[in-house]
Amino acid sequence: MSKKIYIETYGCQMNFSDSEIVASVMTSHDAKVTDAPENADVILLNTCSIRDNAERRVVNRLRALQHLRKRRPGLLIGVLGCMAERLKEDLLEEKTLGLRVDLVAGPDAYRQLPELMADAETGQKAINVMLSADETYADISPVRYTPGGVSAFISIMRGCENFCAYCVVPFTRGKERSRDPRSILAEARRLLADGFREVTLLGQNVNSYRWKEDDSGKVTGFSELLGEVASVDPRLRIRFATSHPKDMSDELLHQMARHPNICKAIHLPLQSGSSEVLKRMNRKYTREDYLERIAAIKRILPGCGLSTDIIAGFCGETEEEFGETMDVMDQAGFDFAFMFKYSERPGTLAAKKYADDVPEAVKTRRLTSIIDKQQALSLESNRSDIGKTMEVLTEGRSKRSDRMMMGRTSHNKVVVFPDQGFKPGDYVQVKITACSAATLKGEAVKSH
Ligand code: 5AD
Ligand code: SF4
Q1: Tens digits of per-residue pLDDT, 89-116?
Q2: Which regions of the chain are under pLDDT 50?
Q3: Which atom in ligand 1 lies closest to the alpha carbon of residue 168?
Q4: Do 67 and 9 belong to one domain?
Q5: Does 247 fall in a domain?
Q6: Which of 49, 93, 265, 376 sits CB 3.0–4.6 Å from 82 for a disulfide?
Q7: Rounded to whole angstroms, how far apart are CA atoms 364 and 360?
C-alpha cells in the first residue's frame, strides 16, 4: 500500500517551491500526498531558520504533532530544509528540542528521501545534510500545490554566496548554482499548457544567474533568461525574486521595459538606509548606490511597483542610522515592505564579529515606526491608483466575499472586484474606485 505523506512548509517562496520537488520525489516512489496530518504515515516539515522566531514556530509545531504518534504507531516525523541543515544530527537527539524527530534532510538531499524513509522505518538514523555544488533538481517535475492554478514558482538557481553578515542562508543552502535554461523554458511551457498564466522565477539573488553551455561556450545571464521566458507566450506573465541592489543592472530594467508580459514590479531589499550599517551588514552597496538604483527604475520603468525588506536594530544601529532608513523609505516610496527586527543567527558573520547590542525595546520601537511609515506609504501609493484602469490577472474568489473576485496588477497590487462570471486565469480591465493600505477595489470595464 502506498504511504501517505503530509508536507507543511515554512519560510520563503523557495521553500514552497522545494516542497513541490519533495512531493514529486515522493509520489514517484509510490507515495500519496495528503493534506491531513492525522491521516499521514509520514509528516514532513520543510523549515526556515532565517530568524529565531521562525525556528520557534517549527519547534512548537513539532511538539504539537507528537501526540499523533500514539494514534498511529510507526508514524515518522521529519525535518527538511534550512533548520535540518543548520542543526543537523542534533535534531535526532531527543534532548536538543525535547522531542523526537525521525528523519533529517537538508535542501540538497531530497532525492534521497525514499531511502531515508526506509532507514527511519527500520529505526536507523536517517539523516542527509550534504550540500551540493550542482544539485538544481532540473529534471524533477514539481508536483504543484494547486493543479489548475494561475500562478506558479520556477526555481532558477539555488544557494547563495553573498554572506550578508546577518544571514544564515549561505550556511543552510550552500553554494550558488544556476539551473539549465532549457529545463526552465520547458517548465514554463508545461505550466502554460496546464493553464497557468503567471510564473515567478525564484533565486536568492536572481541577478547573478549565469549558465554557460559546455559545447558552444554561450553564456545566458538573467536578462537573457527573462527575455526567453517572456517570449514563451504573451499570455504568460513573468515575475522574479529576489534582486540584490549591488547586481541589478540597467540592462535588466530595459529588458523589463521591452516585454509587456514581464510584470513591472521589483523587490529590492534595502535592509538599511545607512551606509555605515550596510557596511557592517556586508551588503556591498551604499545608501547612495541604492537610491541611484531606485532612480534608474523610476527613469526606465515609470510607475514600476517597488517592494523591499528592512531590518530594524542591526548590531550597533544608532538613532541617526535608523533615521536614515526612514528617510530612504520616504525617498523610494515603497509600495510594500517586509519588515523585521534583527535576530542574531549562530555562526553568521555578525554573530562572530558584532554584539547584538540594540535593546529589544529599542528594536520594537524602531520596527513599529518603520511599519507605521510603510502603512502610510502603501496607502498613499494605492490612493494614487484611484481612477486608473489596470489589467488584473484573476486568481480566484476574494476571501472576504463570494461575490467578489481577486487578482493582481502587473505592479503586484491586490485588486478586488465584483464577479461578472470571471474565471481564474482571466485578464480583466479593472477601473480602481477605492482602496485601503493593503488592497485596491474596482469594477471591471471590459475583459478579454
Ligand atoms: N534577522 C532579521 N531579519 C533577517 N533577514 C535575513 N536574516 C535576518 C536576521 N538574522 C531578512 C532580510 C532578508 C529577508 C528574507 O529576511 O531582510 O531580505
Ligand atoms: Fe528561511 Fe532563508 Fe531558508 Fe528561505 S532560504 S527557508 S528564508 S532560511
Answers
A1: 999 999 988 999 999 999 999 999 999 9
A2: 447
A3: 7
A4: yes
A5: yes
A6: 49
A7: 6
